[in-house]
User: Fold this.
Amino acid sequence: MIEMHDIWKTYADGTHALRGVSVRIDRNEFVYLVGPSGAGKSTFMKLIYREEVPTKGQISVNDFNIGKLKSRKIPYVRRNIGVIFQDFRLLPKLTIYENVAFAMEVIEAPRRIIKKRTMEVLDLVGLKHKHASYPSQLSGGEQQRVSIARAIVNNPSVIVADEPTGNLDPETSAGIMNLLEEINFRGSTIVMATHNKDIVNTMRKRVIAIENGLIVRDEARGEYGYEV
Amino acid sequence: MKFSTLLRHIREGLKNIVRNGWMSFASMSSIFISLFILGVFVLLVMNVNLMADQIESKVQIRVFLNTDVDDAKVAELQNKIGNMPEVSKVTFVSKEEGLQILREAMGEQNGDWLEGYSDENNPLMVSYTVEVYDPQTVQIVADAIQAINSMDSDEPIYRVKYGQGTIETLFKITNALRYIGLIIVVGLGVTAMLLISNTIKMTIVARRREIGIMKLVGATNAFIRWPFFVEGALIGLVSSVITSGIMIFGYSQLVNLTQTELSLMLITLVPIKTAALNVSVLIIGIGTLIGILGSTISIRKYLKV
Assistant:
């Protein structure tokens, strides 16, 4: 569960990224974050995985008040949040298996369990047969599947995806969306920022629109609402 | 920390060296070159110091007695000088021994100058050779011996000789050499540290993305730091072991090749064992320390959220 109460975020250069945002996202929800570029979507997401702290206001994730978290405790909160990026952010010198297993090594899971679980999620994203390949040997869609596998390997309760289909063609994007829906179905809350009108209009999930740092629309089964 | 995690960090550190092959090579080369230059200077300074010590230890005081001094007086004076706290050894040199020493010193070619002199008509005076613990006290001891003479009514001592003037200059030179050597070694040490930590910093800057991803998946700072620590320590250790190996080999070759020539010039080099021990302890110590410090200090910047 994510709760924001009157969140303001002003960057050092004076930009007001968010100007009083209050929202509540329940467990197991699937939420699209839409809005023009620079509206504050990325800041909204960065606040959730504690890459940024709010200038003002309260934010809690899984009942942790993460605005006031001691830096020593940040890693432990992040282990409960999976993050997916537009540019995948895989480590180029590690194999697919190592990239995913890495997220489990961090939480000091036993090797036997790491091996079992990593192969399990690679199977889920359909890349078990490519576990020994390196990211550069994979297509964009496949790399995004690896980064999704990494995000879900520790069973996080929240998945934050910043334009996960931004670099992919429509067909590959559909595959990625099916995967995210499957993960949502298995119990994770998903917050996904996107510019993809088709995806939002087909899936008909909750849509939150942000403009100029404010929530201007919040519909339970919404549409994209912007002309592309 | 779990033992399996520690093993993981060591494994990861090793893998990182291989994965970042070129960067590891660059760090190793820079550590190698810096430490090699440092090592060459340390060896040089060690040898200069040894030579200075040897030259200084050859400094002696010669005390010549008047020809009419009897044996009892000779023994009394030897006791008095020998009892001085600075003096390590007093050797009595009889007329006969004096002539022998002189003959040897003049060598075969000029030996005929002394022909005709024998034990019967020996023109030399009896003397003592006085050695001191600390060469720097030669002048004080010489003055003290001179003082014994002034207090004695017979004034049995003819002359006290210790190379007045030249000794002082010699000490000035040897001391200066020691200080210059020390300054150069310290300077090179600092330069080596800066050079190496800079190279390591570069390797870490190249990997800040990697560190960012580690943080994103919830790695603690300690978890991120460990493999870098292992990596830095290993790079430092391996390159300094190579450096000292090559240095010791080179030095032993040098000592063996020049042994005959230098011994003719009465110069001895620092023995290989002593040099090897000192240089390798210094180089391996500095190398490993630099590897560890370089990697852990440079990484701090990227660990902040």
In short: The radius of gyration of chain B is 31 Å. The longest strand of chain B covers residues 87-93. Chain B has a mean pLDDT of 81. Chain B has two domains: 3-55+169-303, 60-161.
